[in-house]
Design a protein that fits this description.
This protein has about 80 residues and is α+β, with helices and mostly antiparallel strands. The protein has one helix at about 60-75, and strands at about 5-15, 15-25, 30-40, 45-55. A four-stranded antiparallel beta sheet has the order 1-2-3-4, with no helix packed on it.
């Protein structure tokens, strides 16, 4: 069984971060996007806020992110 792997992390606010990773469950691999919080002992813990998708959905996820980027770029006000 492969080990879960975090491939990207970014801060959401001072006590939360978003992690993008690859998880394995029952022999299948998943893309996992999840919010983590820092507990009272200073350790990062996962929340229920997130999504896990089969890696089969990677093409659709990439396409969706590309469309989001395009929409945001076209919606930006000119300075």
């Amino acid at each position: 069984m492969a080990e879960d792997k975090v491939v990207a992390t970014f801060k959401r606010n001072p006590t939360e971060e978003v992690r993008a990773g690859i998880k394995e469950f029952k022999g299948r691999r998943y893309i996992d996007l999840r919010i983590y919080y820092m507990d009272d002992q200073g350790e990062w813990k996962p929340t229920r806020k997130g999504i896990s998708l089969s890696t089969d959905f990677m093409p659709e996820l990439k396409e969706a992110v590309g469309k989001l980027e395009s929409e945001l770029a076209s919606a930006e006000p000119e300075v």
